[in-house]
Each structure stands twice: as C-alpha cells, then as structure tokens.
Amino acid sequence: MKRARIILMSLVVLSFLISLFGQEFTYVGADKCKICHKTEKQGKQFPIWDGSKHSQAFKPLTSEEVKAENPDAPENPACLKCHAPLFEKAPELKEEGITCELCHGPGSAYKKLSVMKSRETSVKNGLIVYESTEAIKKQCLTCHENAHEKPFDFEVSWEKIKHPVPEKE
Ligand code: HEC
Ligand code: HEC
Ligand code: HEC
Ligand code: HEC
User: If you take atom 42 of ligand 4, which residue's CA is the nearest one?
Assistant: First the structure.
C-alpha cells in the first residue's frame, strides 16, 4: 500500500518536472556555434572565446599543483560549478569550461540558421539574451563575486571577453 503511494507520488512529481522543463533543449557544444560565428564579418565570437580563459576553465582543476592539495577537484561539484558548470547537464562538454551555451542557453533548437536569423524565434527556442548591462554583470557575478577572494572589475573584464557583431554599414 505504502509502496503504491510512493510510486504514485513519484509519478506526480515526474510529470510536474516534465511539464516544467517540457521543451527539452539540449547542449550541442561550441564547435556547432563555430560554423557561423567565426568570421570577421560575424564578429569572431568563436576565436575570441577560444582564446579566452573561459574555454580553458576546466584545465586548472587537473593541474599537478591543484591535484596535490585537491585530488578530487576534477570531479568535485564545489569546483565544477564555476570551472565547468555544465558538468551535470552536459558532462561531455566539461572540457569546454565556461562554454557559449552556459551564457546563451542550450542550442539544439536555436542553432538553425532559419531560427537564429530572428532574435524572437531564437529566444522561444532556448536562446538566453541579456537586456541590459546590469543583467550581464549579474550573470558574471554568479561566479566572479569573491571567487577565491579575488576582486572583480566588471567593466575591465567585460572588455576582455566581449564579442559583438560588428555594426553593419
Ligand atoms: C547556421 C548558422 C548559426 C549557427 C550554427 C549558430 N548561429 Fe548564432 N546566429 C546566427 C546568425 C545569422 C545570427 C544573427 C546575428 C547577426 O545579426 O549577424 C546569430 C545570432 C546569435 C546571437 C545574438 C542574438 C541576439 O539577437 O542577441 C547569439 C547570442 C548567438 N547567435 C549564439 C549562438 C550560439 C551559442 C550558437 C551555438 C549553440 C549559435 N549561435 C549557432 C547564425 C548561427
Ligand atoms: C565561485 C566560483 C568558483 C569556485 C567555487 C571555484 N573557483 Fe577556481 N576560479 C574561479 C574564478 C572566477 C577564477 C579566476 C579568477 C581570476 O583570475 O580573476 C578561478 C581561478 C582558479 C585557479 C587559477 C587558474 C589559473 O588560470 O591560474 C585555480 C587553480 C582554481 N580556480 C581552482 C579551483 C578549485 C580547485 C576549486 C574547488 C576547490 C575552485 N577553483 C572553485 C571561480 C571559482
Ligand atoms: C560559470 C562561472 C563563470 C561565469 C558565469 C563567468 N565566468 Fe569569467 N571566469 C570563470 C572562471 C572559472 C575563470 C578562470 C578560468 C581559468 O583561469 O582557467 C574565469 C576567467 C575570466 C576572465 C579571465 C581572468 C583573467 O584575469 O585573465 C575574465 C576576463 C572573465 N572571466 C570575465 C567574465 C565576464 C565578463 C563574465 C560575465 C559576462 C564572466 N566572466 C562570467 C568563471 C565564470
Ligand atoms: C561568459 C558568458 C559568455 C560566453 C562564454 C559566450 N558569450 Fe556570447 N555573449 C555574452 C553576453 C553577455 C553577450 C551580450 C549580450 C547579448 O547580446 O545577449 C554576448 C553576445 C553574443 C553575440 C551577439 C553579439 C551582438 O552584438 O549582438 C553572439 C553572436 C554571441 N555572444 C555568440 C557567442 C558564441 C558563439 C560563444 C562561444 C563560442 C559565446 N557567445 C560565448 C556572454 C557570453
């Protein structure tokens, strides 16, 4: 009797979760974004990211130095949550560190050209956009606020990693 109740409860919870996350957008990895976001004309988003520390953020967890003190760092959620934050949702992308889709949302449905051309349709298909500088800063601070007790200067840091589409003439 009790067992049946537990099973029933689990089903209720499960169906609630499915309805909540009904649209199952999945993570496709930066190589997919690269196809269209690498040229000068597009704004070189891929090369800019690839050359930034964000694309390498998983690496420090595997360094000899870290391992000496923290042998479980590459598996430790307390480190991964900032250094490879998709470790649960997309473990295969762990080595991409802070990858495009962490900031822009899972790309399975919006990465098609016909969708990407429209901002509105992209958002309906999982693209995250930031409406203000404040919103961007807030996102950065989820990891950078007092990370390892280091100060974070948003303006300076944003200059280092930003990757706008160039203005069209
Ligand atoms: C098939 C080509 C293609 C692929 C693949 C693609 N994009 Fe795009 N994306 C575009 C085009 C075209 C635009 C329109 C931007 C413009 O004005 O040039 C765009 C716009 C964007 C924008 C700006 C949206 C806005 O209006 O603020 C973001 C962010 C973005 N893409 C992220 C990504 C990410 C992340 C991936 C990988 C998951 C990806 N794109 C894959 C073609 C693509
Ligand atoms: C709250 C987010 C956060 C957590 C949690 C976190 N880190 Fe970091 N870590 C950062 C940020 C941000 C930086 C970059 C700081 C900078 O350079 O300004 C960093 C830098 C580092 C560096 C230096 C990397 C380099 O390129 O030299 C190492 C090593 C490191 N973290 C290891 C760890 C380990 C091990 C853990 C888990 C015990 C951990 N971190 C947990 C955010 C975090
Ligand atoms: C999910 C966590 C996370 C988020 C969100 C995040 N970062 Fe980072 N960032 C890191 C980690 C971890 C590192 C260190 C990587 C390393 O050193 O290997 C880092 C490194 C950097 C660096 C290089 C630091 C240096 O001194 O060279 C800059 C710049 C930076 N982040 C800017 C930003 C900005 C701007 C935003 C918001 C748009 C942002 N980050 C959002 C985790 C994050
Ligand atoms: C640390 C977070 C972060 C990462 C990682 C990141 N972006 Fe962005 N990206 C932003 C923010 C914030 C903006 C500016 C706000 C916006 O347009 O939504 C932006 C803007 C963009 C734009 C639109 C620029 C414009 O002028 O309209 C494109 C396209 C884009 N990113 C693609 C990518 C691609 C492709 C990758 C990976 C190769 C990537 N981004 C990695 C945070 C990030």
Answer: 103
